[in-house]
Design brief:
CATH superfamily of the largest domain: Translation factors
CATH class of the largest domain: Mainly Beta
Strand content: 25-35%
Largest sheet: 8 strands, antiparallel
Structural class: alpha/beta
Oligomer: single chain
Amino acid sequence: MRGDGARPAPRVRGVRLSYSELRVAGCELVTPRMRRIVFDGDGLAAFTPVAPDQQVKLFFARDGGAPEVPDPPAALDDVAGWYQRYLALPDDRRPWMRTYPIRRHLPDERRVVVDFVLHGDGDGGHGGHDGPATAWAAGARPGDVIGLYGPSVSHVRTPGAHDWKLFVGDETALPAISAWLESLGPDDHAVVVAEVAGASEEQALDSAASVSVTWLHRDGVPAGRSGLLLGAVRAMSWPGGDVFAWVAGEASVVREIRRHLVGERGLDRTAVTFAGYWRTHLAQDAAPTAEELADYADDVGSG
C-alpha cells in the first residue's frame, strides 16, 4: 500500500504509530560529515512525539523510487508477523530499513528533520550507518521519497528524579543529544561528552540549560575503536547529586560505558538509558549478539 497519507497502526502507551511516505524538502551540511535532511508529508499529521531521543524506522527503496512496505500491524501481537511480511518481500522489492533518531519535529509544517552521518575517508565508517542509508543520504535531492514508521517507544525511559543529566555519545548520537538539550529549561544542568572525527565535526549545541561540553577528537583513529568516550567518563569529576545518564553510539562502546556507570559509579540501572546506534562489524539490521540480548534483558528487568 502506498500514498502520502498516514497508515494507522496500534496504540502503544497512548502513542498512535503510523506509516507514511515522505519527500525530501531540503538538505544542508551541518558539518563536513553530517548531512541534515528535511522531510515533509501529510502523513506526519499523525506523528505523535514520544521523547527528545525518539527513533523511527526509515525505508529506502532499492530502485530509488517509493518504498514498498507492508501495512502496519493490526494489533500489538502482530508486530512479529508484520516483520515476517516485510522479510517475505522479494529481495529486489524489499526496501532497506534503518533506525534513526529524529533531530527535530515541526508539527505545524508537517515536517521532520533527520541528521545523517556520512562516510569519512580514513575514519573507518560507522557500521550500520554505512551502506544504503548513508549512500542515499549523501545523494538525496528535493522530491526523493522514503518511508517512515514510528516513532518507536521500545527504548524510551522517562527519567526519575535527578539533579543533572549526563549525555555520552559519538557523532551518531549528536542529533538525539541536540534534541534533548533543546528540550531542557533554564533550571536544568547537563554534561555532554561527545566523540567526533576531528575539530571540524564539532557543532553548536543550543540549550536554555546550563551545559558543559567536552569534545573528543579521534584524529584518524577508526570510529568505535578509540576508547576516548569510556576513558573520558572514567576520568571525569562527578558533580554532586543524582544523575540521569543517556549513552548512545557504537554498541560495544555503549555497553562498556553502561557497565562502568552501573558497576563502578554505582548508578541504579533505571538511571541509565542506552542505545547501540551502530556496530563495528555488523549492519544495523543484523541479528542481535548474545551480549546485546543479555544487556537488553538486564535493562528490561530493571525497568
